[in-house]
Structure of Major facilitator transporter:
Amino acid sequence: SPRHDRPLGAGSAALLTGASVALLLAIVQGPEAGWGSVVVVGGFATAAVLFAAWVFAGLRSAHPLLDPRLFRDPRLRSACLGLTAIFFGMFALFYVNASFLQYAKGFGVLATGLGIVPLTVPVILGGPHVGRLTGRIGLDATVASAFAFVGGGLLGLSTSDAGTPYSVYAGWLVVAGIGVTLALPALSGVIAGALPPDRAGVGTGLQATTREFGSALGVAVIATVSTARFAAALPPDARGAHTVAEALARTSRASDVVAAFVSGAEAGLRVTGVAVLVLGGLVVGESWWSRRR
């Protein structure tokens, strides 16, 4: 992208950042404060107002940092939503994976770190071949397959408990990894192709933004769901604990605490998996519809 002697749109960036923070805080505070509480409703309302203000400011600016008009292109819109959904699912998984392997499976620190490796195998082996596959079966089929693998992998992982063999758990990680391998180059290519060459820097920024927002949203959602389920499933003498370590310090019923954690992780992964599948359906549906209009 060419360089310009234009000031950065600090105000627009502040509006978008504020809207994102308000949305995430509302989600995180929901279970504790109540979904109808002033804090939560106010958070969602603030997010909506700030998002609307960001759009309004961008439309009035001659040189906005991120032009809202770009999202009139359904290809760009669906690809950004798709990348957000993929990172939403992956970072939700990262949030519970280490704790699950340590508490439920009894893995040590090193084994826990290595336990996520199966997720990366498809990326390493299959990444160079995604372009050829997309050319053969088409973009929509590639993206649909990606979301099916990621969502299916998360739902499969949600069935894991302390008695599940690691080989089964690793198999579901591979399934999710296949989806990530298909999604990232395909959707990134759509974003790059939807923008003119002089907006290449904007495309890179959009990909970074979707990654950060999707990951933050994924952590917020799965933390909210899993913590609420974990707290409800704790034995009476451990009620009020917010973490597994805190609960274990309050009771001698370690197996019940671990079972409560697993229950929360399963619930969080189920919600995340379903959300990824629904968002994937929206992405593929809009892409399919825009190509046939």
